[in-house]
């Protein structure tokens, strides 16, 4: 299965007050942790979508194999970053079978989880393979190519969750321990540091 990964890292971290992408975690930053996890899926093409803090983030990115793209429309919301990342990957790798979308503020994401998403998609005919955590589901999430057009039509500050609701019968879930832990506020980061 020809797979791509899009890391959505274009937001302005408005609730945090500073670039969450640069917060420290286990001797690295949240962004570099996420990029390293994605790069661990060696057979996947990787796109990193930057926006609000691109000038600050670019010099600090540790993995060079990612296609780095600047989303000039990042203020529109996450849908513009989804469209931007998908466009880059489908241009770079025609015939792409699936794309995994992930964010950079989930400190417990692992390459193993991404491998589980791909394995589940390969062994199943469901069109979306979605992470499940704490009674909810979301990213990282894999979308097979039959949903690329729906992803291209997303608007505003809503992501793939619209498709989860619209095509609920075409979902497969993979458990993601601690997937509900993300960093949106200073309090979230303090809780993470206290763990």
Automatic annotation (TrEMBL):
Location of the MobA-like NTP transferase domain: 6-167
SUPFAM superfamilies according to UniProt: Nucleotide-diphospho-sugar transferases
Keyword Acetylation tagged: no
First and last residue of the signal peptide: none
Entry keywords, A to Z: Transferase
Gene3D superfamilies xref list: Spore Coat Polysaccharide Biosynthesis Protein SpsA, Chain A
Domain of life the protein comes from: Bacteria
Protein name according to UniProt: NTP transferase domain-containing protein
Organism: Hufsiella ginkgonis
Lineage: Bacteria, Pseudomonadati, Bacteroidota, Sphingobacteriia, Sphingobacteriales
